[in-house]
Amino acid sequence: MVLLRSIATVGGFTLISRVLGFVRDILIAFVLGAAAGADVFFIAFKLPNLFRRLFAEGAFSMAFVPMFAGRVEAEGIQAAKAFAVAAFSVLFWILLIFVVVIEVAMPVVMLGFAPGFIGEAAKFNLAVELTRITFPYLLFISLVSLMAGVLNSLGRFAAAAATPILLNLCLIGAIMGLANVTETSGHALAWGVAAAGVVQFIWLFAACGREGVWLRISLPKLTDDVKVLLKRMAPVAIGAGIYQINLVIDTVIASLLPAGSISYLFYADRVNQLPLGVLGVAVGTALLPLLSRQVRAGETEAAHHSQNRAMELSLLLTLPAATALMVIATPVVRVLFERGQFGPMETAATAAALAVYAVGLPAYVMVKALAPGFFAREDTATPVKISVFCLFVNLGLNLLLMGPFQHVGIAAATVVSSWLNVAIMAYVLHRRGHLVLDRRLRERLWRMALATAGMGVALFGALGPLADVLAGTTSERVLGLAVMVIGGMAVFGVLALALGAARIGDLKSLYRGGATP
């Protein structure tokens, strides 16, 4: 398996998904804006996605993939298939019971998830109703994550990477086709989320079948392997999900702030998620099965090389992306969202949060590159200790900063705790000898920083001459933003090549699978 090729496959499909996601969010901003109705839907959307990211994509994937990949390497595909079937059945029944319990207890759950809604009965009741519609999504998407882990471990990345596209298509279809026939636009979107879970499940079930892995639901059997899997899932849920847990804390505290605060953070995070999703998800997805195989085979040098290249690629792309989002946050938000119910005030508030979130963008992606260093070695205890500490730091900073800085303070707390998480994880891996920065990465770090700084200065300098265009009509705004984005990319590319932060030959060699010194 070639790391860069795998990252490119996952990243390519994720990019398509993110573009469709922006179309979806533009439509949501148009029909809901950043008012109370938007806050309610985002709560209903966030709750099942929280558990999906923590337990399905986080805990389950990080615990399941090394075990499945290890069995493919050591015992063959048949043993791995038997393990997958057993895990599938156990996961299904656990999730079914969990979903039913949460559906019944949803009013109580909402008290903890959105305490700021308690004083507004209509808003609280609508949040409960919409979340009951969206929550079954968790059952289907968690099973999708298991099937994605199977396919990724077999080196088949395309089908799994394409599943988020289906979610966005379902939500776009719900806005366009159901908004006029349901009670509110929020109801239409909630039903779109529920339908997306079913569609994604059918898609990956068929994809697994094409690879000869037909997963079926049967009475759960707690085999020794499944017991080990479940034991490892709990700590990994926190170790792999620090970013998502921080966002939940943000949401809970933001519900105590003025109306619109949840929406400002949601829209800002959605923009920040484009580079994070395209690169972070791709790096983590491609690196974990590769590292698991290399560690199991005792290929220490190869594992170090893979992790260094993943870190190098992460920083090469996220440093300029973060700097660009900080400098041009307002034009980006204005072009994407300022229409309909989303006005200049909402743009300013969202752009402020985006500029702060962007500071943490490299950290969010680096976590995806560092976490497999623990999980590939089946270590789940260390990440949970690090993450719990960072969670308390995030909570403390939230409470400290929410008063003077409102929702922007919440974003700042997330950034600080995320960088702290990266620093501690890197230190621990280095102390254990599992993270050794090679000469190539060390030499290129400062070159990347210089190229990024040069691009940032160029973008800032362009804001003045393009001010009238960026504040003009919709077409003028789009043109102005396109000039800045393309120009910034060109400046960074030229500087990166001139300074030696990247070489075209290295990327070609990595994509073909060759090693570079």
What does this structure look like?
There is one protein chain. This protein has 517 residues and is mainly α. The chain has two domains: 3-437, no CATH class; 446-517, no CATH class. Helix content is 83%, strand content 0%. It has helices at 3-32, 36-74, 77-104, 106-113, 121-134, 137-153, 158-177, 185-210, 224-239, 242-254, 261-296, 300-327, 329-337, 344-359, 361-375, 381-431, 439-463, 467-470, 474-499, 504-512. α9 (224-239) crosses α16.
Short description:
Helix 2 (36-74) runs antiparallel to helix 3 (77-104), helix 13 (329-337) packs across helix 14 and helix 14 (344-359) packs across helix 16. The chain is built from 20 helices and no strands.
Q: Give the tally of β-strands.
A: 0
The total count of helices amounts to: 20
The low-confidence runs, each spanning 5 or more residues with pLDDT under 50, are: 510-517
Our measurement of the CA-to-CA distance between the termini, rounded to an integer number of angstroms, reads: 19 Å
Overall spatial form: globular
Q: Could you give the order of the helices and strands?
A: HHHHHHHHHHHHHHHHHHHH
Share of β-strand residues = under 5%
* Cα-atom radius of gyration: 22 Å
Class computed from helices, strands and strand pairing: mainly alpha
Q: What average pLDDT do the residues reach?
A: 81
Helical content stands at over 70%
Oligomer: single chain
Number of domains: 2
Tell me about the largest β-sheet. Answer: none
